[in-house]
Design brief:
Helix content: 40-55%
Number of helices: 15
Amino acid sequence: MSDRIEEALRRARESAAFITVTAERARREGPGPLVAWKDLFDVAGTRTTNGSATRRDVPVATEDAPIVRNLAARGAVCVGKTNQSEFAFSGLGLNPHFGNPVNPLAPDRVPGGSSSGSAVAVADGIVDLAVGTDTSGSVRVPAAFCGLVGYKASIDRYDRTGMQPLAPSLDTIGVFTHDVAAAVRADAWLRGAPVESHETEFRCVVPTGELLDDCDPAVRTAFEDTLAALARSGVRIDHRPLPSLGEAQELMDRHGTLAVAEAYARHGHFLAGPSDVDPLVLRRLADFNAAGEPVVRAAQAGLRDRLVEELAGAVLLCPTVRDPAPAVAPLLADLDVMATANRRALRTTMLLSYFGLPGVAVPHGALPGGLRGSVLLSTPSGDDDRLLAVAAAIWPLLAEG
């Protein structure tokens, strides 16, 4: 185990996926899985930068966040703190201060964000498990772009103490793994609970309309191949409208998103003058619509209730992202192109976050350029045990397909 730890530490030091490497801690921990933490969680003895140059000199954390303690109690080996979009506020995963994590599937493509370093650390085989956060897609999107399983939990699934917030009514915690069974184990460990497996009968619904119609042809083909594989394995899949999704998307298109509104409340002061903040972050903060926020917030509870009724116990099934991971170079050359790509990357997952849905992104199929397709399973808030059970049941079916 010590040789594996040393190799992981060496690779972490050389990788833009990491901001901080916790070598001394790693050498005294174990003998469990190697783990990395998005650098917005407190890990004792490290600075919690939140991916921002504005926090380079904050005091080091004096204690671990509760979920860090829970994993340590299971023997997890903390390799370090991972890179991310600044303030966790981008779906692309690039960082002008600490470097851009490199997507192992396609080095010229973005890794997805905001939990980019966490995804890359797992996809590149440096660690077994990485923990990130997901407000508008920040676990599900990089899982899709890097070919991983990404589980975004319901908002109250884990203790969020010791975690830098972005949009507190939407911020959730999630994990990156290579398979669903590992995500189920990680979920139990993060909660300090025993690992349990559940069997469940299930059916799925694919929402007709924008969530599929707006996809890149290659993404749509990979998704339809996924549906065919599941149908051959006996999974019941219905295709029908879920009107609440369309109404919520139209509402946010007109009035803005809660993620931007709550991020503005925390970071909007950076717009007041010159600052060393990512231009994409500033662009998104400037999108805040003060008049629209109460309209979007007032409709949220009713729309959530309606979606539960429309699902009628089914699991929502859709492509995790609408496009393959975009190339990095054009984004760095043009902020407008970057902003458009960011909106596209987050459009599906941000919508589902508005409804509070936990989700599991599962890789399946191939896309051009060495990338993977990704299917997203989602259930109503609080239904995580069933969601994970369905993901565990679907995982071998996709492998057979």
